[in-house]
Every structure is written in structure tokens, then in C-alpha cells.
Amino acid sequence: MAVEARKSDFTGKAHVALNDPKLRANFRRAMDGLMTKRAAQFADAEEWTSLRARGAAIRANALAKLPELLELLEANLTRNGIKVHWAETVAEGNAIVLDILQKAGAKTVIKGKSMVSEEMHLNAHLEANGITPVESDLGEYIIQLAGEAPSHIVMPCIHMNKVEIAELFADKIKNLTYTEDVDELCAAARAALRGAFAGADAGISGVNFLVAETGSLVLIENEGNGRLSTTLPPLHIAVTGIEKVIERLEDVAPLLSLLPRSATGQIITTYVNMISSPRKPGEKDGPKEVHLVLLDNGRSRVYSDVQLADTLRCIRCAACMNHCPVYTRVGGHTYTFTYPGPIGKLLSPQLEGLDCAGDQVHASTLCGACAEVCPVQIPIPDLLARLRTEAVHPTSVAVKGGGSARSLADSLGWGGWTAMYSSPLVYKISTRVMGLVGNLMPASLPMLKQWTSVRTKPKFAAKSLHQLARERGFSNE
Amino acid sequence: MPAADRPDSVYFFGTCLIDMFYPEAGLAGMELLRREGLKVVFPQKQTCCGQPARNNGHQDEARAVARLQLDAFPGDWPIVVPSGSCAGMMKTHYPEMFEGTPDHARAVAFSARVFELTQFLVEVLDVKLADKGRPVTITWHPSCHSQREMGVLDQPKALLRQLSNVTLVENPREKECCGFGGSFSVRQPEVSAAMVTDKVNSIEATGATQVVSGDCGCLMNINGAAEKAAKPFTGRHIAEFILERCHGR
């Protein structure tokens, strides 16, 4: 199935989200909780500073050697009996997964959480080809029942509250009496999922880290569903992006110390899975076949730009969105594409193109709350500023849709601005004029109209600081 | 900077926003420096740090404006800026903006001389304030670039705590962006409006009758929203606030 072409409409979707008090309350409460939990984990500033520097160095090192590490990874995975597939596009990735499933005669799939499978719209592709995927992560299970996309990369149903989930379950799960009791709701999901685990012909999962030197897939989770999805069915297919590789096994520990603490405020996840081979002769469990599908989908292009390549350091902890004042107010669905929040504002415009998601690079105050908590030190505001530049003055073929925000009005406006602020004389005249007539501007002017929707008009001072400084005898040199 | 490095003269970069909308805040900043015995130089050639163009993707335009500032402050004196945001632009972004251009060396030297006002008052001048004002309860609003680009968060609070009749109450959400973001406020007006509405509500909840900040961009946003919603507090620039307290008003 062809993936439907989509375009970001941040302003329109934000309007809807901002006018949904329940949604706003759900996000605010959830993000407040996550910020508090994370802060408790990193109360020791010195430990945080050194650990994140180590995390950043590990990821930067892996990216610096990306081509050779991917080759090493493939060699070691192959030696371990794991089959490696390369997918340049989403369509290729979907075709590879479908082909593996069809060759195995699989009709039902149990899925562990995978954002890359969301990026591929894999479930829709499988369903269109007669294969039934069942999401087994509780949050993913909930949004699958609701027919929605994840609104957060770690907590996919964070936009819903208990009552909404209770109503959904009562509607969708057979023979379930309406309950708002969280334990009963979890038990209902568990009962429904047990059958799906036992009957699945194949399991599909994501991957958190790919260890090149050992040929291992590292997968962390809290519900045991990841372990069941990857060990119970006879076939396991892991899908992930090419950037997830790290060089050494010892690199796992610092990243494992950063990721859950940044994400949910947990010291470590309940389950840490290291998958290094299919079932070996004499072993009693584990899948007979393990495949890894490595998706590019624009990552190589991002990688080719030395500055923007920092985007690929991301370990998907979601701390940036948890701390983002914009995300907190508009929620994940406002971002249209798979990855919301600050990291999404970098990924979507680069993967989909600035012509498609360029509005997102401006949906930020550049406040820097994201970069402050990023465990691998991605300079998110600087990269947003870079993408803003590419949107109007393209410098790099690495950026898809560069120059798409160019317009005559924009050029003229900034040309005028530059003429005013780069000439002391023009500036002096302009500020004098604004001091005299600026306050006569009607609030109905385009930019003032938006400003005054919730604010009063700014008042131009009668005399500028330049004038006052002269009058009060402050030296000019 | 050790006390031995206390200069006898400083440059003052007023910022374009203060120049046009809040000149009294700039003047107060200069007075605070002058009353410490410094010669305060205000180059009339100065205009804007260039941040609006940079943040909107117009690097050449930002450099053209920034280059004028490099020209306007030729001496070795510190450049004191009554805005964490403009100071952050000049301190952290000028060196990278001019990389690979003939102006790089002087941009690096320039950025090394940039101080945010409260940072300079505390770290370089170690000022001592005598409060002559009436008792008042205030809260602090740190701008994002002040706290995150300049590392200025404790210095202004240290100054405010020197004022004996001023009760500084913490806003639990003080570190959250007010939603200004320059062009963001008109590119995403509804998101910006939601952010500033939450911000003024959080300030109101502290019970403070004044919110004090070191950045006029935030103040234009917060004051505008507070005035429109008839909130029981007003926003002041820290320079103006401190100077008034010291004069007993």
C-alpha cells in the first residue's frame, strides 16, 4: 500500500489541540510528572554532566564510524545467525517484512513497541496484505484499539486519561464490564494479549541499540511484552534505523544509564533484552529465525551533512518532548508525522522534506529546554536555526526541500530590516519616526492583530535610549 | 573575573527593544554602572545584535547587522548588555556566525567581552545594594537565553535578595518559556498565547505584585498579557527595579 502523502499543518492542528481542555490537562499532568521524575534521577549535577558527555561521545563516535560499524554489525549478526536486510525506503522495508512473513506462512504477528515500524506504517501494510498485527505494548495496544497514532515516542497513549481508556476498553474488548479500576483495565488487556502472544506466527520488535562488535540487538522495555514478542513466536523480525548502531558492548551501560532515567525517571527498565542469535540446537526456547531490517529512509542524507548529522545521535528517550513548553500544550498529534516534539521538529523536516514539514522548524521559541535535558547533547535549537536557514537560503543538498520557504515578501522584509539595522543613520531616522507615529498603528495590522489577541499593544517610547543617553551625558566613545 | 580585573570603563549595548520601547530600563542599567564609579560608554552607532535575522534563517543579514556592532565597540572594555537574550546572541553565536570570514577573530574577541548586566554587577563589580523602598513581594522571571545560553539565573536573584524590604517568592514554573520567541509569537500566535497565559497565571499564583526580569522581550509579552487580562501585578526590568529601590521610590 502506498503511504499517503501528508503535509504538516502545525498551526491548524495546534488550534484544535489548544481548544481541547481535556487533552491539554492530560499532557500537562503527564509531562509535569515525567519532568519531576527525571529531575530526581539527575539531582547530582556533576554525575549528570559527566554521564551525558560520555553518552554524547559514544553516539558521536558511532556516527563518525557509521559505514564501517554497519559493515561490522552485519558481519557479526550474520555469523550469529541473524539475517540482515537493508531497506533504503519505507516501501522497501515494508516489502522485506511482508516477504519474510509470507515465506513463513505467517498470518498473525505480535508486535513489541517500535517507532520505526510506525515510521513505515507497517501495520497498515500488513493488514492490507492479509496479516493481522497486534500491538503488545500496553500503550500501543490502547491506541491500536482506538485507531490512533502514538502521541509520544515512549508513552504512545499519553494523550488519553483513565476514563477515556475505560470507555475505549468497554467498547472494544468483548465481555468486559465498564471499569475505571486501573488494575482491572490492565488485567483485561493482559487477558486479551495472552492469547495473541500464544497464537502469533511471528513477532516484530524495534531495537534500542545495535552492538557492532558482538552482533547483538539490545531492546529495553517494562512489560515483558518485548521479551515475549521476541522469544515466543518461531520467527522474530526486528526493524530499526541505521543510526542505532554503537561500537562496543561496553557502550551499552552508560546509554542504559541515561535512557530510562531521562525517559521515565527509572534507574533501569524492568527488562533488558540482548538478542544475539536465533534458537541454537539443544535450546528449549527462542525463535528459529531472527531477521533485522535496517531502514535508511533519508538518514544517509541527514548523515551527509556534518552539522545536521548530530540529529542521528538521538536515543529516543523523549526527554526533549517531556520538557518542551510547546509539545506540552499541543500534544504529539499536532506534529502530523511519527516523531513529535523537539526531535520531531528536526527529524520530520529532514526525513519528509522542508517543503512538507518546514512549518515545524518555526514552531519553537528556541528556548533550549530540550537541549538542556538531552542525554546525548544534541544542540536542538542550533539545528532548528540551521534548518530555518536552509528553508530560505539552501546551502546543502542534504536537506530535502531546501529553499521551499523563499518568498519575495520574506526577502523584501528582511532586506528592509537589514537596511535599517546595519546603518546607524537609517536606524536613527527610523527610531525617531517610530517614536513619533508608532503608537498610532492600529491593532488590526497583520502582526499586531495576532499579538493583541491576548496582549495589549507595545508602546513606543517618545525618546529612544540613544537620545536619552546623549541627554544624560553618556559618552559616545 | 577577580576584583583586580575591575575595569574603569564599560561599554553599554542597549538592545533595539529597549531602545524603542523601554529606554528607561536601559538608562537605569547605565546608572547602576555609573554609580559604581565606572565610565559608561554608549556608542551611538549601535543598533541590534542581529538575532531576529539569525533566528529566521537569514544569516547574511544577521552578519551584516552584527558586523556593525563589531565596528561600534572597538575598545577593550567589557560590553554590558541589559538582556540575557541579546547577550547570548553576541556571546555564543557571533563566533560561529563569523567562522570562515575575515571578521572571525574580532567576533571571538568581541564575544569574550560580553556580559549580561546582572552577571557583571555581581561577578565583576560585586555590588552592595541598600534598599530604601517600601516592603514589596516580587517574583523573578528568567529568560530562556539568560539561563541557558548565559548561565545567568542565580546572579539576579542574589541582587534581589540584597534588598532588605523585598520578598522574593519563587515561581515553581519560572524556568518555563513565556512564549515570546520573537517571530514565534506571530508565526504560532495561538501556541504563544497559550504559553503566555499560563505564564501570567503562574506569576499571579505566587501572590507577587511585581514580576522582575532581565529581558524586555519577555516583559513585553508578559506585561502585555497581564495588562490585557487585568492581572494584579506588573512586570519591571531588574535595572529599573533595583535603581528605584536604591533611590527609595
From TrEMBL, chain A:
Q: Which InterPro entries match?
A: 4Fe4S_Fe-S-bd, 4Fe4S_Fe_S_CS, FTHF_cligase-like_sf, Helical_ferredxn, LUD_dom, LutB/LldF, LutB_C, NagB/RpiA_transferase-like
A Pfam family hit: LutB_C
Keywords of this protein's UniProt record, alphabetized?
A: 4Fe-4S, Electron transport, Iron, Iron-sulfur, Metal-binding, Repeat, Transport
Which PROSITE patterns did the record assign?
A: 4FE4S_FER_1, 4FE4S_FER_2
| Protein's name in the database | Iron-sulfur cluster-binding protein
Q: What is the lineage of its organism?
A: Bacteria, Pseudomonadati, Pseudomonadota, Alphaproteobacteria, Rhodospirillales
**Key word Repeat present:** yes
For molecular function, the Gene Ontology terms on record are: 4 iron, 4 sulfur cluster binding; metal ion binding
Q: What PANTHER family does the entry give?
A: LACTATE UTILIZATION PROTEIN B
GO BP, one annotated term? lactate metabolic process
Show where the 4Fe-4S ferredoxin-type domain sits.
Answer: 304-334
Provide the species name: Paramagnetospirillum kuznetsovii
TrEMBL record, chain B:
The organism's superkingdom is given as: Bacteria
| Molecular functions per Gene Ontology | oxidoreductase activity
Q: Which residues form the Cysteine-rich domain?
A: 10-91, 138-222
Any one annotated GO CC term: cytosol
What this protein is called in its record is: Oxidoreductase
